[in-house]
Design brief:
Oligomer: homodimer
CATH architecture of the largest domain in chain A: Alpha-Beta Complex
Pfam families (chains A, B): ADH_N, ADH_zinc_N
Subunit structure (chains A, B): Homodimer.
Number of strands of chain A: 19
Low-confidence stretches of chain A: 7-19
Number of helices of chain A: 12
Subcellular location (chains A, B): Mitochondrion
CATH class of the largest domain in chain A: Alpha Beta
Main location (chains A, B): mitochondrion
Mean pLDDT of chain A: 92
Helix content of chain A: 25-40%
GO biological process, one term (chains A, B): fatty acid biosynthetic process
Number of domains of chain A: 2
CATH topology of the largest domain in chain A: Quinone Oxidoreductase, Chain A, domain 1
Radius of gyration of chain A: 22 Å
Strand content of chain A: 15-25%
């Protein structure tokens, strides 16, 4: 952990007057082997880096610590960064500092860009040099913590809503894990499209407050798991149309409850497994209720032919943020407190908002 | 049961010289309430029935006793025939006897027709009158037990192979329950299309003979469930491409083994649940292996917009029968022994070939 202490001294990197095609020396959170993040991560000094003809040098503003970042460092995620010399972080926002002479994208110093697609791994650094196609220009009039986090949770929510079953205004979807950031985004994105949401949350202290919060976000119905343990689950829906689409990020009992709410011929998409339990499907659900079950993993999705679509979706999401129609809780932590943010992101200090590391004092931007 | 004894006396129905638009009086196996087949079935005398303008009178030749017929009579099948007055049987072949004056289909006395689509329920009768669109003309140079049984098991096998994932010659599929008639048809139909099959069967006495029999039919690989309980199941496939499509008619452990053989992004279709156990899917199979799971029920399928396609598929299947490329074991039982056939179909006399009832002595055809 000591190696991760960013001292005031270290942070005061003075950006030298830009040499023609040099990105300034920078600090990066790196690792050389897989393992426990607080054991293997180290703060490294890198650079200055010379820009290739089509490279863009970006001064990173902010990047979150996602659960998948932790899993990547632990080496338990299917996509393994190359070690030694891996830089942590898969998403983040920065400000264009300099562009190579052959860059054709409309990118100028000062523009905000996000690291996308995610193959552009390594966002936990104060500067980053990557080819132009790995940066996507975004509006710069939203809080930077939203630009920094738009490509994982909100984009997942939008893909779930748009890319599995054709939904129309007035339709209904059902989801479990509704209090997660993806769940909260699903509620708000559905509302923006006139789609009603049936939301399933855990039975636990505070579930009434959680219901209230989700309702404030636009949830149509919210049930705890125990409330759905009734014989005729459809009777709880009132006049709502039965949903053709369901989202599952829990597995186990929560997945079973979600599929019970689906209409005949419906589809459930599993995108997480918080309970670490399997999804159990009766053969009659397949044969007579004609349910379909699919998986969704954003990395597979984005690394297919969906990059252009996804960039449009990202722009749409940040437009919604600007309009106040998409909100979720983040905590901006200065880079010097990276170790603290890491502990919070790992749940070592109890439930916390998503940790977003800001790399520079605002005064220096 | 006594009511089901067809005496020699009863069977000697003498077809009267056809009145202009009358179908002769006939015998039907009927039921007036749901229940145990040997309790609720009765042999009824019906008719003569007057033909409507677009009706066709068919002298039924043969009809099988399928498990779904039993379930329908028991009232446990989702599609419930209307009682009282339901006639058993969903598939069968007959010979056109007379056509109504406004019939436009190319149907002439002597033609072989099958009851299709299955909405034309009630094939356990010596004559049947139904509108022209509920009869499909088929070739009459195959054994009648194949024409009588083509619309349930062989058609299911062909839909499974053709309608879920685009397969090309050289591709591979995997299936469990491979010794079932559907399973045997899948093997032969796949072979006819140049598709290789990986087959999973139960561990039981005689499994070596079963392997041999399936291999004779064209199976590429046959494994018992226990043989697949190895860490690297893909090592068993040798040079075979990993299958993109799998069929499950068992659920439980057999379903889990089937999905393990599938390639990343593959689809498993569940069309039966012989083990009466659920299909268990790990969330990582959804998320990281990107597997999809669907159901298939022929009744749903045929009652959609697939009737024209299915008729072409039925013709293709009977062509294969004629060419000797599609074979499965049936037992032709005379109508007078209907009660015996019913017992055999219900498994009361041990494992038996599919029971097909022939309504007339060959000499009378």
């Amino acid at each position: 952990m000591a190696s991760l202490q960013v001292t005031q001294e270290q942070e005061r990197i003075t950006s030298p007057p830009m040499a023609s095609l040099l990105c300034p020396p920078y600090k990066a959170v790196m690792y050389d082997q897989y393992g426990e993040p607080d054991k293997v991560l180290r703060l490294a000094d890198v650079g200055p880096v010379e820009l290739g003809a089509r490279d863009v040098c970006v001064k990173m503003l902010a990047a979150p610590i996602n659960p998948s970042d932790i899993n990547s460092i632990e080496g338990v995620y299917p996509n393994k960064p190359t070690v030694p010399g891996a830089v942590g972080g898969i998403e983040g926002v920065g400000q264009v500092q300099a562009v190579g002479p052959a860059v054709t994208a409309s990118l100028s110093p000062g523009d905000w860009v996000i690291a996308f697609p995610h193959t552009a791994m390594g966002t936990w650094q104060t500067y980053a040099v990557k080819p132009q196609e790995l940066w996507h220009k975004v509006r710069n009039d939203v809080p930077m913590e939203y630009a920094a986090t738009v490509t994982v949770n909100p984009l997942s929510a939008l893909v779930l809503l748009q890319c599995f079953t054709k939904l129309n205004p007035g339709d209904t979807i059902v989801q479990n894990g509704a209090t997660s950031i993806v769940g909260q985004c699903v509620i708000q994105l559905a509302k923006a499209q006139g789609i009603r949401t049936i939301n399933i949350i855990r039975d636990r202290p505070g579930s009434e407050q959680a219901k209230h919060r989700l309702t404030q976000l636009g949830a149509h119905l919210v049930f705890t798991e125990s409330q759905l343990r009734v014989k005729n689950v459809k009777s709880l829906l009132g006049t709502l149309p039965e949903p053709a689409l369901g989202f599952d990020c829990v597995g186990g009992n929560a997945a079973s409850l979600t599929m019970r709410v689906l209409r005949k011929g419906g589809t459930m998409v599993t995108y997480g497994g918080m309970s670490k339990e399997h999804v159990n499907v009766s053969t009659s659900s397949f044969i007579f209720k004609d349910l379909s079950f699919k998986g969704f993993w954003l990395w597979n999705w984005v690394n297919s032919d969906k990059v252009v679509d996804c960039k449009k979706m990202i722009d749409y999401l940040l437009d919604l943020v600007k309009e106040g129609k998409l909100t979720y809780q983040t905590e901006l932590t200065p880079f010097r407190d990276f170790g603290l943010a890491l502990n919070k992101a790992q749940g070592k200090l109890g439930a916390q908002p998503k940790q977003v590391v800001s790399f520079w004092d605002k005064a220096k931007l």
